[in-house]
Amino acid sequence: MASARKRTAILISGRGSNMAALLEAAAAPDYPASVALVLSNRADAAGLARAAAAGVPTAVVESRLFRGDREGFERAVEAELARAGVELVALAGFMRVLTPGFVGRWEGRLVNVHPSLLPAFPGLDTHARALAAGVRLHGCTVHLVSAGVDEGPIIAQAAVPVLEGDTAEALAARVLEQEHALYPAALAWLAAGRVRVEAGGRRARVEGAAEPPPGRGALLNPWPR
Ligand code: GAR
Predict the structure, then answer these.
(1) pTM beyond 0.90
(2) What is the Cβ-side half-sphere exposure of residue 96, based on CA atoms within 13 angstroms?
(3) What residue spans carry the region label Disordered (predicted)?
């Protein structure tokens, strides 16, 4: 019997490189999620053409047509999700804050990738802010979405070193490479029902996930010598 792959919508606002990484992962027959829809809040999002080229249904709900009416925007988004029979929603560079109502209706089925090691640097310009703060490790987070912006139980994180002379662009590229590996893994865990939320909804645990191999359990920067 074919196992039921979770029908997933990817919500984007722009380039869509994380979307492309998820599409590539979902092309494997044993991946536990299928991409039923790519939806953008902007018609000019470059990711839409990439999705269409991959044969994935796309939809646009222009948020600028819903100024001051976030519920109306979300109703239109949810109509598209319902039409596509969506079970999971993956935000991938989706630059709209969702209302508590939307988040509540999709609780436990709504996931986001954020370009920092949350809870450090929620919000925008994370790479420039990490450089300004002088942190030596930076990275990305995949988390379930809860009502607060860039909050919610953390499923997985990847860290990268901040290097001497880094620019925000160089650091962003180093983090993005990790996003492209981390997000497909985390979405697979969620789709396979392996993510358990505990501690009153504050923490997530991945069942059966491997721990880092011995000797690789710590990333130090600078490296001691
Ligand atoms: C990614 O770095 C993602 O983490 C970030 O936007 C970029 C989108 O790139 N998301 C946020 O900042 C959400 N608050 P992509 O369109 O190439 O995936």
Answers:
(1) yes
(2) 26
(3) 204-225
Residue with tokens 């939307």: 102
Q: Is 17 in the pocket of ligand 1 (CB under 6 A)?
A: yes
Gap from CA of 110 to ligand 1 centroid (Å) = 16
Choose, from 114, 127, 143, 180, the residue flagged as catalytic: 114
Collapsed DSSP state (helix, strand, coil) of residue 168:
helix
Residue 16 annotated as binding site: yes
pLDDT digit string (tens) for 154-202?
Answer: 999 999 999 999 999 999 999 999 999 999 999 999 999 999 999 888 9
What's the CA gap between 157 and 115, in Å, rounded? Answer: 10
Residue of minimum CA distance from atom 14 in ligand 1: 114
Strand order in the sheet with 137-144: 58-60, 33-40, 6-12, 88-91, 110-114, 137-144, 154-161
Q: Is the CB of 92 under 6 A from ligand 1?
A: yes
- The CB of 14 under 6 Å from ligand 1? The reply is yes
Angle at 121 between CA 178 and CA 196, to 5 degrees: 65
pLDDT given for residue 102 in this prediction: 98
Q: How far apart (Å, rounded) are the C-alpha atoms in residues 225 and 218?
A: 15
Q: Is 138 a known active-site residue?
A: no
